[in-house]
Design a protein that fits this description.
By secondary structure, this protein is α+β, with helices and mostly antiparallel strands. It has 13 helices and 18 strands. The strands form six sheets. A six-stranded mixed beta sheet has the order 12-11-15-16-18-17.
Length: 405
């Protein structure tokens, strides 16, 4: 990809080719979705909005930049299947603002609004039937490999942070690390290049969302019982490695987990939620979400009477909601293994009565159901809405309410 303004100027001067496309202004949604998908289906590339076909820089009004960028992101999420992850920038050349759209090469075939396209020379072309069939066959083979083991486009060997991946490989000479990273599937060889795997990015990069769009946890606390910005008390996005996201989300709930008390012969306390159950719920959401679905993130909402946790992706394999307390089906086996090797700090170990983030004994759902029902007398509720799983944990009533009754 283009790294500097000098390089960008040179590319504009040389004109459009198989890796760069100029647009005087933002085209219609269907046309832009075709252009983006064509790049994704070929070698990746750059689209510059604010540049004429002949390389003349006309720019975009400063007031329009954010709106143009928002529309481009919406097109990538809603007008292309599967959605395409892009990186947008707002370079300024000769005091004129541009929108630069970096499109990565995709390991999957992308379909845009008008069909399947590829990039040839300086223009897009509809994909020939033979090539489409061949790519779809290859795509099917790739999809048989779990998504968390597949490579992430535009990553490199140094995308993985040494301080993070050393948790999963023994101490060896620096030259030996690469083979171990490949063996653990944190690193993947793609043609002649080394790429980080999905699990590698999620666990060994400081900000996975840089490469895997929406791979973070959003948490919001409301004073009432509905999603209403007027009653929003606290909101955070947790974007570090997955184990850090889990800890941060856990502490967010703990911070707002109200504890009521009653003094009789001895002091009796009752929290709204079992933090052990909350920890299991967050870990399950992180381990079992479908990271290939970039249109949504894990969302955690706390209300006065309940906690809701949304995880993108339907249940794995043929698992049903009714099966959850009794069966296991792991969507991200590599990710689960890495979390089962990641130790908890003493503070969390005491709170959760476990040593690692994941114990892999199939007890998680049972702990969520039993611990929560013991507190609130209400069984947590699992529901599937399309391609998303929602868990609702009901808050225990205050001990002060017991007195009032």
């Amino acid at each position: 990809m283009i790294q500097s303004l000098t390089e960008l100027r040179e590319k504009i001067y040389l004109g459009e080719d198989s890796t760069i496309e100029f647009k005087r202004e933002l085209p219609e949604r269907k046309e832009l979705s075709d252009e983006i998908a064509a790049f994704a289906n070929t070698r990746g590339g750059v689209i510059l909005v604010g540049v004429e076909d002949n390389g003349g820089i006309v720019g975009i009004d400063r007031e329009s930049l954010d709106g143009v960028e928002k529309t481009v992101v919406e097109i990538c999420q809603e007008g292309i299947d599967p959605p395409v992850h892009i990186v947008t920038e707002k370079p300024c050349i000769d005091e004129k603002n541009l929108i630069k759209i970096d499109v990565s090469r995709s390991p999957f075939v992308r379909r845009s609004s008008n069909g399947y396209f590829i990039r040839q020379g300086s223009r897009k072309m509809e994909m020939a039937a033979e090539r489409l069939e061949r790519l779809l066959q290859n795509n099917s083979q790739v999809r048989r490999m779990p998504f968390d083991k597949q490579f992430v486009p535009n990553t490199r060997r140094d995308t993985l942070s040494r301080s993070l991946y050393q948790r999963f490989i023994p101490s060896v000479a620096e030259g030996e690390e690469e083979n171990l990273l490949l063996k653990r599937r944190l690193l993947v060889k793609e043609e002649e290049n080394y790429r980080a795997s999905v699990a590698g990015v999620l666990m060994c990069h400081q900000s996975p969302d840089d490469y895997l769009y929406n791979s973070f946890i959003q948490a919001v606390y409301y004073r009432g019982v509905e999603k209403d910005a007027n009653y929003q008390i606290d909101a955070k996005d947790f974007k570090g490695p997955l184990d850090e996201q889990i800890v941060d989300a856990f502490k967010f709930v703990e911070k707002h987990n109200q504890v009521s008390a009653r003094k009789e012969i001895g002091r009796i306390e009752r929290p709204q939620y079992s933090m052990r159950a909350v920890f299991e719920a967050i870990v399950n959401a992180v381990v079992h979400r479908d990271y290939s679905k970039t249109g949504s993130k894990i969302r955690l909402f706390m209300f006065a009477d309940r906690l809701e946790l949304y995880s993108p992706g339907a249940l794995a394999n043929t698992l049903t909601v009714e099966d959850l307390p009794y069966s296991q089906a792991t969507r991200n086996e590599l990710l689960a293994r890495l979390l089962s090797e990641t130790t908890l700090e003493d503070y969390l170990e005491a709170k959760t009565t476990r040593r690692h983030f994941l114990e892999r004994r199939g007890e998680g759902v049972g702990i969520i159901l039993n611990e929560s029902e013991r507190l609130s007398d209400k069984t947590p509720l699992y529901e599937v809405f399309g391609e998303e799983l929602r868990l609702t944990i009901f808050a225990a009533e205050s001990l002060q309410d017991d007195i009032a009754v």
